[in-house]
Amino acid sequence: MLKVDLDDEFINTLATQIADRAFEKFRDKIESSKWPPVLSRTKLMEFLGIKETKASELMNRADFPVIREFGHPKVPTHLLLKWIDSHTDWVEENSTYFNRIHSA
Q1: pLDDT digits (tens, 9 = 90+) for 8-17
Q2: Are strands 38-39 and 75-76 parallel, antiparallel or unpaired?
Q3: What pTM value is reported for the model?
Q4: What span, in angstroms and rounded, lies between the C-alpha atoms of 76 and 96?
Q5: Which three-class secondary structure state does DSSP give residue 74?
Q6: Within-domain flag for 50
């Protein structure tokens, strides 16, 4: 039989990593459920705490998750959250999104 001995530091580190990942997934679910599945330009501005110029800049980026087939541009909320995770430097410099999360 295989027996593995793990030290307390390793177990605590692993437990912390698992808890952090679970919290991130839970937070994303909670955050996305507060908002409609698809955001209008106005709701996007409210969500990110940005004004019209910055919203236009974002919505015209090639890597930004915008859908234009509905007549007016819309942003899927779940894709926006993924985009934010992968572009945190841009979001920190150009919006109040993280200020609101950390102060809540």
Answers
A1: 888 888 888 8
A2: antiparallel
A3: 0.58
A4: 19
A5: strand
A6: yes
